[in-house]
């Protein structure tokens, strides 16, 4: 534990800064969480959700896994989604990928990697579905595009869950967005695939 003392020191300085700005912050935060946003992102340490969108603790509910996947057999992810939609009543779900994603890169090869192959198989399916488009690109562009296509696919997976479908049927118009983040410049881009109940009615 002594080896991690710097992290505890950092924590105390951080809490002190927060209290200087708002002496009641933690008392108020402890009473409830009331975020408007659910962030489904990658576990990559370079992609910290709250910092990227400059929100404080309590303002965004977060689920992260390798390559920001939403898989219909992943009870962890689905439980987060259900709690966010049905209990917290979030208004926006953002699926956020990032360029340079290690999970996406691993899925582009055919090497056996162990247990994670079962997870990456979902991205390899996306690669096969879009093989014609991807084959026309150079290696860097192909990698970037597969990162984007993965986000778009996961947005589709979110909106097709019974959780979101039931929310829309009950009148809770939660919107689902697909974004991508650049580690190289710190900026988010909207992939323009937002779907909500009103969007579906217009189709």
Gist of the model:
The protein is an alpha/beta fold and 203 residues long. The protein is 50% helix and 14% strand.
Label this structure with key terms:
about 200 residues; about 15% strand; 5-stranded mixed β-sheet; alpha/beta; globular
Description of the molecule:
This protein has 10 helices and 5 strands. By secondary structure, the chain is α/β, with parallel strands linked by helices. The protein has a 5-stranded mixed beta sheet. The longest helix has 21 residues, at 139-159. The termini are far apart.
Please specify the SSE layout and strand pairing.
Elements: H1 5-21, H2 25-31, E1 37-42, H3 49-52, E2 60-65, H4 75-87, E3 92-98, H5 102-107, H6 116-129, H7 131-135, H8 139-159, H9 162-169, E4 175-181, E5 188-190, H10 197-202
Parallel strand pairs: 1-2, 1-3, 3-4
Antiparallel strand pairs: 4-5
């Amino acid at each position: 534990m002594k080896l991690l003392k710097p992290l505890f020191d950092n924590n105390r300085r951080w809490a002190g800064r927060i209290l200087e700005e708002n002496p009641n912050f933690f008392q108020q935060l402890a009473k409830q969480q009331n975020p408007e946003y659910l962030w489904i992102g990658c576990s990559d340490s370079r992609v910290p959700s709250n910092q990227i969108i400059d929100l404080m603790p309590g303002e965004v509910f977060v689920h992260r896994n390798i390559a920001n996947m939403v898989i219909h057999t992943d009870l962890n992810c689905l439980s987060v989604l259900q709690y966010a939609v049905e209990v917290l009543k979030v208004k926006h779900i953002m699926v956020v990928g990032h360029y340079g994603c290690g999970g996406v890169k691993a899925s582009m090869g055919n090497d056996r990697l162990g247990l994670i192959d079962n997870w990456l198989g979902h991205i390899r399916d996306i690669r096969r579905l879009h093989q014609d488009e991807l084959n026309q690109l150079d290696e860097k562009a192909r990698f970037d595009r597969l990162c984007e296509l993965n986000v778009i696919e996961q947005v589709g997976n979110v909106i097709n869950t019974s959780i979101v479908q039931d929310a829309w049927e009950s009148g809770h118009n939660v919107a689902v967005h697909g974004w991508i983040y650049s580690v190289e410049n710190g900026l988010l881009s909207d992939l323009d695939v937002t779907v909500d109940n009103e969007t579906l009615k217009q189709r």
